[in-house]
Amino acid sequence: MRVLGVDPGLTRCGIGVVEGGHRRGVRCLGVGVVRSPVEDELPRRLLTIGDGVEEWIHEHRPDVVAIERVFSQHNVRSVMGTAQVSGVVALAAARRDIPVAFHTPSSVKAAISGSGRADKRQVTAMVSKVLGLSTPPKPADAADALALALCHLWRAPMTDRLAEAEQRAASLARNHRQRLRRAVRDSSGTGGNQQ
User: Fold this and answer.
1) Residue 153 domain flag
2) Of 10, 61, 33, 25, the residue nearest 146 (C-alpha)
3) pLDDT higher for 86 or 181?
4) Which residues are tagged catalytic?
5) How crowded is residue 47: how many other Cβ atoms within 10 Å of its Cβ?
6) Residue 124 sits in which domain range?
7) Does residue 189 fall inside a structural domain?
8) In this structure, are residues 146 and 27 in contact, taking their beta carbons and an 8 Å threshold?
9) For the domain that residue 102 is a member of, what is the CATH number?
10) What is the pLDDT averaged over residues 151-164?
11) 171 lies in some domain
């Protein structure tokens, strides 16, 4: 599976691509940032980010795009820009029928370091170690994007199995309800015919 991880940001949008699979190692195919000039108007900045992300998608042809779920209670202005970038990235993936997955920062940190409270330095160190990178990816946005991609790569099989199990359970429940309705209908029909 090839995963494009995106750490959304209006000034610096981290991008990282990893590839791995069952019983295969994982490797980094690319890492970087897409930047937008602070002096530009918001629509132009979003266009710049969107164009950059589309270039990465075109070049690496990922199977899925993993985006950090926007979460903050403090800086509303920063959250708005990040959320808008997330939307642009999701749109770019949807245009190519590429599935999109969102992961919270704490779930990414837990997947990479074992702790949902790991700091950026710890996440960068673990990403570098797992991917066998000789130098840590910089800036931190790039390392975070690789962490997102790794998180999805590792958790996707479990998430897929859970989704399949939920679908099977829902199907069994539907079938059971239909049998119950038929049984009730048949028993009430039989009882109504008796004199």
Assistant:
1) yes
2) 33
3) 86
4) 7, 68, 141
5) 14
6) 2-161
7) no
8) no
9) 3.30.420.10
10) 72
11) no
Q: Confidence class of residue 25 from pLDDT cuts 50, 70 and 90?
A: confident
Does 63 count as an annotated binding residue?
no
Residue partners of 71: CB distance under 8 A and separation at least 6 = 104, 105
* pTM for this entry: 0.79
pLDDT of residue 70: 82
Is residue 185 over pLDDT 90? no
The count of other CB atoms within 10 Å of the CB of residue 143 is 27
Taking Cα atoms as reference points, which of 23, 13, 12 lies closest to residue 1?
Answer: 23
Q: Output DSSP code: residue 69.
A: P
Q: Is the pLDDT of residue 22 over 70?
A: no
| Confidence band of 151 (pLDDT split at 50, 70, 90) | very high
- The mean per-residue pLDDT over the stretch 147-163 comes to 78
Domain-embedded: residue 187: no
Place of tokens 């996707």: 156
CA–CA separation, 27 vs 12, rounded Å?
Answer: 23
For residue 16, what are the contacts with CB-CB under 8 A and spacing of at least 6?
Answer: 4, 5, 28, 30, 31, 32, 137, 142, 143, 145, 146, 147, 148, 149
Number of domains, the chain: 1
Please enumerate in sequence order all residues whose Cβ is within 8 A of that of 33, keeping only pairs 6 or more positions apart, or say none: 12, 13, 14, 15, 139, 141, 142
- Ligand-binding annotation for 68, yes or no, is yes
d(CA 1, CA 35): 27
Quick one: tokens of 144?
A: 């975070």
Mean pLDDT of all residues belonging to the chain: 88
